């Protein structure tokens, strides 16, 4: 045999055959292929893909001119408006990292996020400027004036009272459109040299004292954006309604999917059943994502608001708290085709899907809904999904009964938690990402959540740490002992339920007044959606060592039935 001069695997990478994966290139292609197609619609504001590409480059250029560079954090505090969408391209085009902030958080929590991420720039919707201002004051007071004030950019919106815009401008903020004018619409942005570079930072509340910063990379965002389209069967030119907050896992990466498909984003500042049906009827909506709480609002809309029958099949993706089969059945009856997914911030949003099988078509509606309520199988871009016994790290039997922890592995798993090596060590133990969710694996390979470890409550698609709520409630002068668990909620899927033992000597004769006082106290100390919607008084069940038996409280909360009318 002759000498082989070059092995088949020795062919080298070069600029012609290898480049770092990034979703930013989707925008450039959309502007090339469909420059005149609508990219964004928000009230009277309409942009084409050509305009959106120029505006995103202007944003990148303006940020670069102000010193934004690789590793700089740019925080955006805004609802679903064009500037929030543009930030998903313009910020990383400058090399900076986007931190889309949950607008439902209180100032104390936002202050932690901004300080922990060392945000150098804050882009904030005019209505939320006072919230950002309060958060910055908390940081300044805590650091005794040593905190370097970030660049403040206020985003104007025609749908808001202009007094809030004037308030921000009087305090020195730069208006977003004026800021864009300082940038070059032909800015020659460059993709990252390494696809492992960070593209976004998002915060998720666990059971720790503070939220954890989830860092995502360009490669994962690229793969998840395309995987969304493949999994959902989305076609080029899809019309997508933003009912899902873009601040939530970057809109489950659909911000980038829409550019890949040259589709149209309909921005929805306020999510109501009337606005959803109106957009479907008048703007050609074909797809939207939403937590089960939003779906519940849609199917129970008054007849005057519901535009039925639907003018076309509307595809819906839902995730968060597992939707009850009855809700899935009701959506189907109204003409919506629901895809049920599951995932976490740490997995770029939904990364499993209850993939529909043709053989289910002939089953009764109730059985179809039951099967579709499971969390399902891996996304195309997810390399590994399993349910394991945490004692020996071996997969549990596929019997639909044996409970284990759901674990993930692959390119759509986060880089890690920012500045939290201990949490990273725990999360990535034994080569898997540990979700903390407990579930089973069925004989057909589909997984299903059965319980949630670490007592996370999912309300309206948002995670709530019961421990953090308890820590606040313990500050109430009347509370001796408290435990918070999830209770079914007709509107939000789940809501916090507080079981309270009062301090000795406290007057418990008027429990309704006491409950209202505790809720009022909670609203002054934490995000409104964290506040328990129900308060139950009495002794708490405990083990011999004094540990509260939360599993018994969960059973009791479930037996109480769903909360009929949530306060938020």
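-> sequence recovered:
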């Amino acid at each position: 045999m002759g000498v082989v001069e070059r092995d088949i695997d020795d062919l080298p990478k070069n600029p012609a055959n290898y480049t770092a994966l990034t979703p930013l290139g989707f925008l450039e292609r959309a502007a090339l292929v469909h420059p005149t197609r609508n990219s964004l619609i928000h009230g009277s504001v309409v942009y084409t893909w050509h305009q959106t590409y120029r505006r995103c480059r202007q944003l990148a250029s303006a940020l670069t001119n102000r010193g934004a560079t690789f590793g700089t954090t740019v925080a955006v505090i805004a609802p679903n408006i064009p500037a929030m969408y543009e930030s998903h391209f313009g910020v990383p085009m400058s090399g900076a990292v986007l931190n889309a902030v949950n607008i439902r958080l209180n100032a104390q929590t936002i202050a932690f996020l901004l300080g922990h991420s060392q945000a150098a720039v804050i882009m904030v919707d005019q209505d939320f400027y006072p919230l950002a201002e309060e958060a910055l004051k908390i940081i300044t007071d805590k650091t005794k004036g040593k905190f370097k004030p970030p660049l403040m950019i206020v985003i104007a919106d025609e749908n808001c009272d202009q007094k809030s815009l004037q308030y921000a401008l009087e305090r020195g903020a730069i208006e977003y459109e004026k800021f864009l004018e300082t940038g070059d619409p032909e800015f020659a942005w460059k993709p990252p040299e390494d696809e492992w570079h960070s593209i976004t930072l998002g915060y998720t509340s666990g059971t720790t004292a503070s939220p954890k910063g989830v860092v995502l990379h360009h490669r994962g965002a690229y793969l998840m954006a395309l995987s969304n389209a493949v999994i959902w069967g989305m076609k080029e030119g899809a019309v997508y309604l933003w009912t899902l907050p873009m601040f939530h896992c970057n809109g489950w990466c659909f911000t980038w999917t829409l550019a890949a498909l040259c589709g149209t984003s309909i921005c929805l500042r306020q999510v109501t059943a009337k606005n959803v049906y109106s957009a479907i009827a008048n703007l050609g909506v074909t797809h939207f994502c939403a937590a089960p709480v939003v779906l519940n609002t849609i199917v129970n809309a008054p007849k005057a608001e519901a535009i039925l029958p639907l003018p076309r099949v509307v595809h819906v993706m839902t995730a968060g708290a597992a939707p009850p089969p009855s809700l899935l059945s009701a959506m189907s009856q109204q003409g919506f085709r629901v895809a049920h997914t599951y995932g976490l911030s740490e997995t770029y949003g939904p990364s499993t899907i209850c993939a529909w099988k043709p053989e289910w078509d002939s089953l009764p509606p109730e059985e179809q809904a039951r099967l579709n309520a499971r969390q399902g199988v891996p996304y195309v871009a997810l390399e590994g999904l399993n349910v394991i016994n945490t004692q020996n790290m071996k997969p549990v039997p596929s019997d639909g009964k044996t409970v284990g922890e759901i674990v993930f592995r692959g390119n759509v798993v986060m880089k890690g938690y920012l500045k939290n090596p201990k949490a990273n060590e725990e999360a990535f133990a034994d080569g898997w990402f540990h979700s903390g969710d407990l579930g089973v694996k069925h004989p057909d390979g589909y997984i299903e959540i059965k319980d949630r470890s670490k007592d996370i409550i999912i309300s309206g698609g948002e995670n709530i740490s019961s421990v953090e709520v308890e820590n606040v409630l313990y500050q109430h002068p009347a509370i001796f002992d408290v435990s918070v668990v999830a209770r079914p909620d007709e509107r939000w899927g789940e809501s916090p339920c507080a079981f309270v033992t009062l301090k000795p000597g406290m007057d418990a004769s008027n429990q309704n007044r006491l409950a209202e006082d505790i809720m009022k106290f909670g609203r002054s100390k934490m995000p409104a959606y964290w506040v328990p919607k129900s308060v139950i008084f009495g002794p708490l069940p405990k083990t011999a060592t004094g540990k509260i038996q939360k599993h018994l409280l969960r059973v009791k909360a479930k037996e109480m039935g769903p909360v009929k009318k949530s306060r938020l």
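The domain at 461-559 is CATH 3.30.300.30 (GMP Synthetase; Chain A, domain 3).
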